[in-house]
Glutamate-1-semialdehyde 2,1-aminomutase (Aquella oligotrophica), 427 residues
Amino acid sequence: MLTNKELFEQAKLCIPGGVNSPVRSFNSVGGTPFFTARAEGSSLFDIEGKEYIDYVCSWGANIVGHANKTVIARVTEALANGFSYGTPTELEVVFAKKICELVPSIDKFRLVSSGTEAVMSAIRLARGYTRRNYIIKFNGCYHGHSDSLLIKAGSGLQTFGNPSSSGVPEEAVRHTLVLEYNDTEQLVEAFRVYPEAIAAVVIEPFAGNMNLVRPTSEFIQQLRELCTKNGTVLVFDEVMTGFRVALGGAQQLLGIKPDLTTVGKVIGGGMPLAGFGGKAEIMDCLAPIGGVYQAGTLSGNPVAVTAGLAVLDLIQQQDFYLRLANSASLLMDGLKKIANEEGISLSVDSVGGMFGFYFSDRVPQSFAEVKEGNQELFNRFFHLMLDRGVFFAPSMYEAGFISAVHDSRVIDKTLAIARDVFKILYT
Ligand code: PLP
């Protein structure tokens, strides 16, 4: 039997960096990633047979618990009917109807296979609809790896940002403005400097890619008003928050209706499924009825849609989100209490089944404030917890996730381990 270390060495010989998505490599925290052999309920099991309580939950996709029996049964049944047809299916219609019913801002919905595709398509659609080129994104938000969104902030509104990845031409980000999250003044200024030029503002309505950061109500309301006033399409990227923070997503909790919404992760229950939707008037600009081209061989894949439908059924159970939110606050409040008892500065926050903890004395409101957290302490905490069988996201810039089967027994066990870890964190 191979150890994680041995397999990682082999992986690096045939997969760049040994992983198929960079954050999995533990670059930020150091050390060797473990290789998962199987998952069940709230746990992952690695190839050495070690069990981990999983607070990454496939980066938010898993909300009903790993290897949920209901989902497995429905997927198994679907598999027997074939995996992909290249024709429309009734399942897709049922799925789209359900999404439109659960998210009132969505009149029409289209399926794709990843969050990246969903946001990339929504941006193209907003540009086609408005016949404008500029888009605004916020520092610290991640919207997948399409070219125009891989951008580092410049030093002010008049200086443009640079691509954050090599291979992205400067021209590809020339029309992307990067502003600070929760900075209303900057937003007002951007609309003043670029009147009638901004096609879309894309935002994570609760940011989860710079740890968890909430919008202030003033900021998010102004954002909605400015978009409406300027004829700009407001895109809520709910790939992470959709069906994760509430049944109606972040927009339900914030009481704001975006023009377009992107979803992913939870809606596929771990299968490659994502989508985007919104106002009919905008969605009808898509091919084949409109001029904005967008397509996909595997879009609406019947097996993935079946998994998604099974998850959508489960999350509509009575008090599902109430229980999820209670578990997340139980975990976060407990973590803060025991850290503070050991004299360690720790702040916490949670929304529905998503949480953040920060080695800092305040909950951050921007990427700059997240960066003030103590990275060294986080990295040490991460490894000490991992050694004892608790898997938090391997970067202090990622939010955490729980599923419906992370019950009080699992959380108590986590907190007992955390108590031991906080005692030795400084040694
Ligand atoms: N948008 C947000 C908010 C995300 O968190 C992610 C992925 O983490 C994406 C888009 C990209 O999704 P995918 O990794 O499925 O392409």
User: Anything to note?
Assistant: Residues 4-55+319-424 form a domain with the Aspartate Aminotransferase, domain 1 fold (CATH 3.90.1150.10). The chain has a mean pLDDT of 96. Residues 59, 114-116, 119, 142-144, 204, 208-209, 237, 239-240, 264, 274 surround pyridoxal-5'-phosphate (CB under 6 Å).
